[in-house]
Amino acid sequence: MGNKDTDKELLRSFLEFLRNEHEITLMYPMLFKESKSWVKTPPRKGDRVAINITLDGKVPNESQEDVMINQFLDNFGND
Q1: Helices and strands in the chain: count of H runs, count of E runs
Q2: 70, pLDDT greater than 70
Q3: C-alpha distances in angstroms, 6 versus 23, 48, 69?
Q4: What is the DSSP string of 44-62?
């Protein structure tokens, strides 16, 4: 794997790309686990999600994203 700082910037750029170009953002999975509609299982990749409710989701701030990115980079390739 490359330099951790470089990898971190690449992942941050990817998250920005998703937000700006595809209107996709990270949300904490707790939103889905606390909803009875999901039976405590978050949607899987490719699942279609229709939500007809007022939604109060928490989007990670930059420092929380840094923590997640660091955790990912620390564990990436260790599977």
Answers
A1: 3, 0
A2: yes
A3: 24, 34, 12
A4: PTT------S--------H
Amino acid at 54: T
Tokens of 23: 């209107």
The tokens describing 15, both together, are 């998250």
Tens of pLDDT, residues 58-69:
788 888 888 888
Domain positions in the chain: 4-69
Q: Residue 38's pLDDT is what?
A: 55
Residue written as token pair 């994203």: 65
Please answer whether residues 60 and 29 qualify as being in contact, where contact means their C-beta atoms are separated by less than 8 angstroms: no
4, 72 contact by CB (below 8 A): no
- Please report where in the chains the tokens 């599977």 appear, as a residue: 79
